[in-house]
Amino acid sequence: MAQEDVFKKLVAHCKEYGFVFQSSEIYDGLSAVYDYGQMGVELKNNIKKYWWDSMVLLHENVVGLDSAIFMHPTIWKASGHVDAFNDPLIDNKDSKKRYRADVLIEDLMAKFETKIEKEVAKAKKRFGDAFDEAEFKSTNPRVKANQEKIDTVHQRFVDALDKNDLNELKQIILDYEIACPISGSKNWTDVRQFNLMFSTDMGSTADGSNKIYLRPETAQGIFVNYLNVQKTGRMKIPFGIAQIGKAFRNEIVARQFIFRMREFEQMEMQFFVRPGEEMKWFDKWKETRMSWHKALGFSEDKYRFHDHDKLAHYANAATDIEFKFPFGFKEVEGIHSRTDFDLNQHQDFSGKKIQYFDPELNKSYVPYVIETSIGVDRMFLQIISEAYTEEKIEKENGKVDERVVLKLPTALAPVKLAVMPLVRKDGLPEKAREIINELKFDFNCQYDEKDSIGKRYRRQDAIGTPFCVTVDHQSLEDNTVTIRHRDSMEQERVEISKLYEILKEQVSLKELFKKLK
């Protein structure tokens, strides 16, 4: 099945089972804004807890913060967002649709990469164990031709970004005949810059109001508070400040479901270090963050680092952790060496010293900053798209059954345990309720008594519940139940008294933390 079709099924699944809804749907929706349903909010909260605890609990020198969304407007002037927070915009004259010129070009290179991957996959199948991928890529004429196209486009793209040459961006689109995905037309306007910040007015009257911005990132709230945290927490460099919060960007092209939205949530950590030591910590946090992603147990070949073609004005090093979504490799987390740009800017614009006194060096300085920034919504999409699985199951009678299962990491699953009485009588519902009442303080449990056991299993598979417990008549006699494992569908008889320990061992975040470097 084509990846595009799989992705459409995933989007439909998210709605059908209460993970993600279109915002304001009864009013025909609001473009690129989504609501998280009863299952989605649980998964989202578990992702945030995994990140927060891995930052704040596992690092003695990282603490938390929750800064306001509304901030003094001069902050965004100091940070460069008012003047330079732009995306290159291009319109198709026939479809009247807007696109980011850089995204259109990146998608073009991704198509060439896909062609190479298909050639490699065919060759692997043909040659088997004797296949040498590196040699094949260096000698196959079709692969070499596509790689040359990638290299050529990439070099022109990087040069255009470095020079802020909007005409060259358009010329690349024209030269490679990039068409509008909606109309198929190649009738494009010129490329122009578009500021992504939302603005609003603060004040009780129109005359007395101030223009302020909805924050496009959470980092600036950390920077303007870094000295408050350092002094009140008696923090010594190096130290970090972590924050989870909403951010807002008026995206030109908001697409691919919740991958790019106008209202989204970030998990950011700013790590303050001595000048001159930033690259050591940059490499350290690259390794630490990749370890955090891989601990979830997904295939390692789904991850890669991608160094930035053009560094932001504040950075001297930047890389993205990319994940292979159904629509290709895309960024899920950025690690940046932001130098001392932000703190120096706020010092200059505010007129207040925000230097750190280093008792070991006996001098004051403005720290350098290493940033790790990850989108909660993208992380949600990454996890659920990788977990979505369609399986065919051969039954004893020779018939083939199908199931859709979310093979979520057990610690992140919205519901950890479903308890099901075999029948709705003979004291079985009461026994099932007893089990839930004992476990619900520690685990998110669900009671389910409707339909056959098979249908109930399928419902729980679809929301990613790792364990189902069936209460039958034998349970009343010897206090044992049948526990079913989601991924293997294996069943075993266990004592009710042992359920807590089984769940504690299998669904705890502690098991994920043990895998971290």
Automatic annotation (TrEMBL):
Annotated compartments: Cytoplasm
Could you tell me which residue ranges the Aminoacyl-transfer RNA synthetases class-II family profile domain spans? 177-421
Is ATP-binding a UniProt keyword of this protein? Answer: yes
Provide the protein name.
Glycine--tRNA ligase
Q: What is its EC number?
A: 6.1.1.14
Record the organism. Answer: Ancylomarina longa
PANTHER family in the record, alphabetically?
Answer: DNA POLYMERASE SUBUNIT GAMMA-2, MITOCHONDRIAL, GLYCYL-TRNA SYNTHETASE/DNA POLYMERASE SUBUNIT GAMMA-2
Kindly report the protein's main subcellular placement as a broad class.
cytoplasm
